[in-house]
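Why should sequence recovery work at all? Because a backbone constrains its sequence more than one might expect. Tight turns favour small or flexible residues, buried strands favour hydrophobic ones, and helices have their own preferences. The token representation captures these environments compactly. In the example below, the structure is given first.
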């Protein structure tokens, strides 16, 4: 009886937290809107999230959110041959923020993020990766969309493989950063694109995704851990994805202020940043580091070694790259520490008349850009804060690399016939 009472108290407490923070733990009112087949064999599933009431200011990572769990991409394919799983290829995701009343599109400035993940109740990345004849290298997240990048499409001929019976979760969050907006209720509409292998076309080539983070040393926050939804932490909920292995680089992360002379390299210029939220502390970067920090007025560069985060299984090529920066983020660069050369650069643009990221660029390449398992890499983010106050920042690069181990060259022959 006592246990029942405690369970009830716990439920009420969770309910109060949910009301206070706008968190909807499971997508109430969420549904599958449509399933379609398009020219060229592409297929889509349209999802509608729970309604989110935007009746006050919600900053980045603070807005109403929910998870739409256990999405089956193609029930018909899964049922076709029970027990025989086909491979489906995820090729892209689009989101729109819509009015909850008439489902017409509203400004994307209310979008915080969407994470399409494996369903944590029915699988794990390890189990998922082992289910393919050639084991893959996926982690929890399959696609992430962020402000300024509400559409990601992999280059033609590439996809992220999943099995026809694999269940997916779509975690979406909204925000409301600018004062003076009328109260509105919105929903996030997501379109997931996928295809099957088709005998008339070359086989789809597999990609694995990595999210790599700039992290910064901050004054340690004793005893605090990154909180997520109390009752149901989910791998798609926050900006950062939790990971059990230590992903700190061998070289310490730094930040530099840009003075009138340029980037100030004085050793005193790099020190602890001010932390923006406790959610920015993630186990894999240690309690002394954060992925969510404050940028003082002016230009600042933040850099971290990301070799461990890239966790490349072999030499490969990247075929799609984009990123996530908060307002006033300028650019995000991946640099090869061996050569000092920039491998990719992603640029962001903020709205001029309100707080928000208007666009973030993407790189899509069928030929691919080489990434070497033996090389060390650094991620560099530039912020230019034009205001007179500190602003909050993150810097994440999302990349998709070829999930095919290079074929080792045949043993050298003594003599090749002419
Ligand atoms: Cu963020």
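From this structural description, the recovered sequence reads:
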């Amino acid at each position: 009886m006592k246990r029942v009472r405690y369970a009830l108290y716990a439920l009420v407490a969770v309910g109060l937290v949910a009301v206070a923070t706008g968190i909807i733990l499971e997508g109430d009112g969420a549904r599958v809107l449509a399933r379609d087949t398009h020219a060229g064999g592409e297929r889509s599933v349209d999802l509608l999230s729970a309604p989110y009431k935007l009746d006050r200011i919600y900053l980045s990572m603070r807005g109403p959110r929910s998870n739409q769990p256990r999405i089956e991409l193609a029930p018909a394919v899964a049922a076709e041959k029970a027990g025989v799983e086909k491979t489906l290829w995820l090729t892209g995701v689009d989101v729109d923020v819509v009015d909850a009343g008439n489902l017409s599109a509203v400004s994307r400035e209310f979008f915080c993020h969407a994470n399409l993940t494996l369903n944590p109740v029915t699988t794990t990345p390890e189990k998922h990766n082992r289910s393919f004849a050639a084991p893959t290298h996926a982690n929890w997240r399959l696609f992430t969309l962020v402000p300024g990048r509400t559409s990601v499409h992999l280059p033609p001929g590439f996809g992220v493989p999943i099995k026809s019976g694999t269940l997916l979760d779509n975690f979406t969050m909204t925000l409301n950063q600018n004062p003076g907006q009328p109260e509105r209720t919105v929903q996030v509409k997501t379109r997931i694109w996928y295809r099957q292998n088709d005998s008339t076309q070359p086989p789809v080539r597999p990609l694995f995704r990595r999210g790599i983070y700039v992290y910064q040393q901050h004054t340690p926050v004793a005893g605090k851990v990154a909180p997520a939804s109390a009752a149901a932490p989910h791998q798609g909920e926050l900006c950062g994805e939790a990971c059990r292995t230590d992903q700190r680089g061998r070289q310490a992360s730094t930040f530099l202020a840009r003075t009138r002379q340029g980037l100030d390299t004085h050793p005193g210029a790099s020190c602890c940043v001010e932390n923006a939220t406790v959610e920015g502390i993630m186990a894999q970067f240690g309690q002394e580091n954060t992925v969510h920090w404050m940028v003082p007025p002016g230009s600042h560069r933040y850099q971290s070694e990301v070799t461990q985060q890239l966790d490349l299984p072999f030499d490969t090529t990247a075929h799609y790259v984009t990123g996530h920066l908060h307002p006033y983020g300028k650019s995000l660069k991946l640099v090869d520490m061996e050569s000092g050369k920039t491998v990719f650069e992603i640029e962001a643009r903020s709205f001029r008349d309100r707080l928000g990221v208007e666009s973030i660029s993407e790189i899509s390449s069928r030929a691919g850009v080489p990434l070497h398992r033996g090389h060390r890499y650094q991620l560099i983010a530039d912020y230019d804060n034009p205001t007179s106050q500190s602003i909050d920042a993150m810097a994440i690069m999302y990349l998709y690399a070829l999930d095919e181990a290079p074929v080792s060259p045949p043993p050298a022959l003594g003599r090749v016939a002419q």
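A few observations help interpret the result. The longest strand covers residues 87-99.
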